[in-house]
Fold these 3 entries.
Entry 1:
Amino acid sequence: MRAPIEVSYHMSTSMITALPPSGVDRIAFIQCANATFESVLLRMEPANEIAIRKLWNVEHYVDSFLRDDMLPMERGEALGLIEAFLVHHVLDLIETADDIGSSPIH
């Protein structure tokens, strides 16, 4: 297994004012989400890791974890929310992968 990637975009004070994020913000969000996903998956040690990786869609996650009513928001705060909320998203992916794996036709 790979070691988690350290991403240090939290120090930026740029503001997120529109969704979905674009440009440098989108790149930072995708990098943070992928690094956090790897770290969470490593800690959880799920039995069906391959299925979970197939279900993981970083672009969909980045496009949907924030809502318009949460804006404007500093980029660092938004990145912190990725890290905070992604644990629950990975748990949902694990449950979905388990459901798919236990269905009679898969």
Entry 2:
Amino acid sequence: MRGRGPGRRGGERTLKPRAGHVDGTHLAIVLIVAMSANGFLALPRFVALRAGGAGWLAMGLGALVALAGLTLLVTALARFRGQGLVGVAAEVAGPVVGRLLVLPLFLYFLADTALTGREFAENLYLALLPNTPVPVTAAVLLGLAGATASLGLETLVRAAMLWSLIIALFLVPLLASFVTLADFSNLTPLWGPGLGSLAIQGWKDSGLYPEYLLLGVVAPLVRRRQELWRAGALAIGGTWLVLASLSVLTVAVLSPEGAARLSFPVFVLARSVALGRFLERVEAVFVFLFFLALTLRKSVTLLGAAFLLAGSLDLGHHRPLVPALTVLAYGLSFVPLSVTEAAALDFTVIREVLWVLVVGLPLALLALAAGRRKGGGGAARSR
């Protein structure tokens, strides 16, 4: 009895994530940091190119579209208690089609890990490590992300709670220092390229928030499923606030044309700030924040890919998959010939069509669930 009881339960804790042990608010903070990390990369450049000074409005419209997708996702999950995204897809579409439904999300998480790793390594090469080969830097950074992801969701949440405090402590004064350099007339005209173009771009900008779908993937691990919508709304709203602030300040200081010419506008912006007589190299603080945020982002997307693959293969745990996915992401990160090509692939190709995933996947699950229930074949809720 002694060997089969507590000992066995203790072994299960080390092998499988514990259901219901992640707080929804804490998970929202993880997603805010992860999704906001794009603002430290080339995102402000492409926002300036597409919408000028109205980029913050386009991203706000995208956030509203993502909130609609979140509502659809939570409604679909509510029909199948105890199931996550993979389980719901299998329930409503069958095991084969269900796996095909979640495959695009898996591919996105893997591609984002690869592209972010490449952009991250190239940025560090330009900023701090000019004598270190980019492949070496990328290998170390992706290795750190893989090690963090292998520790599981609860450990990642605890690390994110600490990192988010550090990031907020330094980022808020840094953003405030940008205000002194800003010329807010650069944000005019308010509607940017026009209302029609702004609305279309806003719909496409919902592709800045696909990580909210991770809430569906880890839904069985969340303490109270009623927290899912609130956590997702907090994550999407908080991310928009950070990205909008970075976009507005970048355009206000550098002008839309100036921001559009730079690969990493926020880093260049940080170089122009001096906080007093003895603190002039503010970009060093920025690189520190950049490192924390991007490492967390890569850990989140890698963990999401591992969870999706483990669920699709009916594996008991994601951990054995993390090393292979990390190596695969490292190889994929050097498919683009340059960092400019990698950023263009990320922000002008992948994110331009991600609205299909952000809205289409939850809508498909809800429609299939409704049709299955109406047909009488799947009205029973998941056990």
Entry 3:
Amino acid sequence: MARIAAALRRRPTRLYVYGLLGPGFILATSYGLITADKAALWISLGGALLVVGGAELAQTKTTPLADPRTRDGQPAYLRPDTLPEVDSERWT
């Protein structure tokens, strides 16, 4: 099971498996092996499992910053006290 999990973490493997999910379940449905409702559920499950591997890979390739700043030294995120005022009359 660990080898399968490791293989699914690699992008080419995920693309290959994901490319087989749709046609495989269409074929299984056309032969009457599973119903269309169940095929949709299995495709959703397979897609979700493959996305988890991609999210894990993306997480390992990023480096979190303790205090992200732009090039001019400003915070790289929006703080509530730095948001511009909204003209409420404009939106009514």
